[in-house]
Amino acid sequence: MSLSHTVLSTTLFLMAGIGCSSAPPATDSPFPVPEEDDSSKGLQKAVLAGGCFWGVDAVFKHVRGVTKVRSGYAGGAAETAHYDIVCTGRTGHAEAVEVTYDAGLVSFGTLLRIFFSVAHDPTEVNRQGPDIGSQYRSAIFTVTQEQQRVAKAYIDQLDRSGLFKRPIATVILPLDIFYPAEDYHQNFLEEHPTYPYIVYHDLPKLAALKRLYPELWKP
Q: Which of 39, 136, 160, 164 suits 154 as a labelling partner, its CA being 20 to 30 A distant?
């Protein structure tokens, strides 16, 4: 993902959800409700990495119960938490989003359900669509041990479901520090809805979220 993208792929357009044109209605969604969930109450934070943070940020901003989303970096050091350096793929950082949510309205398990079904392709290794490098890896940076338990249980549940033809590549790591990205990356989709990368790769994710989870959709 770069402000200078000249080559666009339709991979994510076709992949969002499980195929944007043929995703089933919410009542028939193939993605299971988590068998295990976090019992935490009040405002909580989750940090998720699923490729370019523009689209992941936009997805969670439209989830009922989410109060704030920030794009940023996780997995590396403070001195390298800058876009131009993270883009080298050698800093250990992943592009990630910090989701603040009201656990009384939406659970961590539900956020994971959206993360795996709508926000990205969890079977990709160190890439998402046209974006290649370890900074685009699929990762859950857990804030608590409870989140770690729920994340592991849900990945196991998805593996048993047979929904994915390839193994889930998502790694579960304890969060050290989340570093907010530069201002021009924040709320990028809303600020640039006609940007080609957004049109091809991220707007379909919002359409899939609204179709698969209408009860969770927040305009």
A: 136
